[in-house]
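Reminder to self: tokens first, then the designed residues, so the page reads top to bottom the way the pipeline ran.
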């Protein structure tokens, strides 16, 4: 008896042969195409308990505090959007500063957290957020630096990072020519937004972008 193979079946057999002969590399490539790369896990997954984002410029010029407040607000919104933990409304922090006008600066991190009903504090120390101009030109460059840690309100101990006092961030922008769109204010806002995103992504899983679609955080 003569046995004939249809073109459709032959095509499927060839594909099967290629997959089995090439091993996991092809399978991995196909999985990447359809599902994207693996999720990047959070550096630290905070407990789902009341959390205060406290951003300050500890020991620095008071001129930095408005930028620290802006950064704290951005991080709070980002963490809330990704349901990292129940977030304390920053208006409670502002009210506490007003009520303790003479003594707030002497309060320790756990004291501030306890006063607003938090169980943990994402503490950000903004150490630099400046713009430098190049003498004799219209070029300028931004630089930003901060550290972040998570503090347990009950004990005052650092929950994260496990090693070292805090997690550092430091970045300088490329030199930019000043014009109507690119201004020092716009650059400072961009740096704060980028830093807020980098800080927030420490605390939730992220699916990177891949060909064929844009990854979304879990």
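Designed residues (218 positions):
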């Amino acid at each position: 008896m003569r046995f004939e193979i249809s073109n459709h079946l032959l095509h499927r057999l060839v594909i099967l042969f290629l997959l089995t002969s090439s091993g996991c590399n092809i399978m991995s490539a196909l999985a990447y195409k359809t599902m994207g790369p693996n999720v990047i896990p959070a550096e630290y997954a905070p407990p789902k308990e009341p959390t205060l984002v406290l951003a300050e410029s500890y020991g620095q010029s008071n001129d930095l505090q408005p930028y620290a407040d802006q950064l704290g607000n951005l991080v709070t919104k980002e963490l809330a959007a990704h349901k990292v933990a129940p977030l304390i409304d920053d208006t409670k922090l502002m009210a506490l500063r007003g009520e303790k006008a003479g003594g707030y600066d002497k309060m320790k991190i756990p004291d501030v957290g306890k006063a607003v009903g938090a169980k943990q504090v994402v503490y950000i120390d903004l150490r630099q957020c400046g713009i430098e101009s190049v003498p004799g030109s219209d070029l300028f460059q931004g630089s930003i630096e901060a550290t972040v840690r998570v503090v347990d309100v009950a004990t005052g101990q650092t929950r994260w990072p496990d090693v070292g006092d805090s997690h550092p961030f430091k970045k300088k922008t490329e030199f930019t020519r000043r014009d109507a769109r690119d201004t020092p204010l716009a650059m400072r806002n961009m740096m704060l937004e980028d830093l807020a995103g980098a800080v927030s992504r420490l605390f939730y899983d992220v699916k990177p972008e891949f060909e064929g679609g844009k990854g979304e955080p879990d």
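Strands lie at 51-56, 120-133, 139-152, 158-160, 167-172, 176-177.
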